[in-house]
């Protein structure tokens, strides 16, 4: 079984982290569930970062920091 992790959000490239030689059926089952869970977690993070709401929040944050600097 091979666990894949996304290491670059911009490039969207996967890399192989560790190759595990699985001996039992239970280990295979647990490994598959863990790798699917990790993949879904990473995908959720990417969707949050690339969502329009996040970019709006980022621009509001910049605007607030500009206003704070202006009032100093």
Structural summary, described in words:
The chain contains two helices and two strands. It is of the alpha+beta class and 72 residues long. The protein has one domain (2-71). The chain has a two-stranded antiparallel sheet. A hairpin with a 4-residue loop joins strand 1 and strand 2. The longest helix has 26 residues, at 25-50.
In short:
The chain has about 70 residues and is of the alpha+beta class. It is built from 2 helices and 2 strands.
Question: How far is the N terminus from the C terminus?
Answer: 57 Å
Q: How can the largest sheet be summarized?
A: 2 strands, antiparallel
User: What shape does the CA trace take?
Assistant: rod-shaped
What is the gyration radius calculated from CA atoms? 20 Å
| Count of individual helical segments | 2
State which percent range the strand residues make up: 15-25%
Count of folded domains: 1
Order of neighbouring strands in the sheet with most strands? 1-2
Low-confidence stretches: 1-18
Helix content: 55-70%
Order of helices and strands: EEHH
Arithmetic mean pLDDT: 59
Overall structural class, as computed from helix and strand content, comes to alpha+beta
Number of strands: 2
């Amino acid at each position: 079984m091979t666990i894949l992790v996304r290491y670059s959000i911009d490039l969207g490239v996967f890399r192989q982290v560790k190759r595990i030689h699985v001996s039992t059926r239970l280990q295979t089952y647990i490994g598959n569930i863990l790798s699917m869970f990790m993949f879904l977690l990473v995908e959720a993070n990417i969707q949050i970062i690339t969502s329009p709401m996040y970019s709006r929040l980022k621009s509001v944050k910049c605007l607030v920091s500009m206003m704070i600097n202006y009032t100093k």
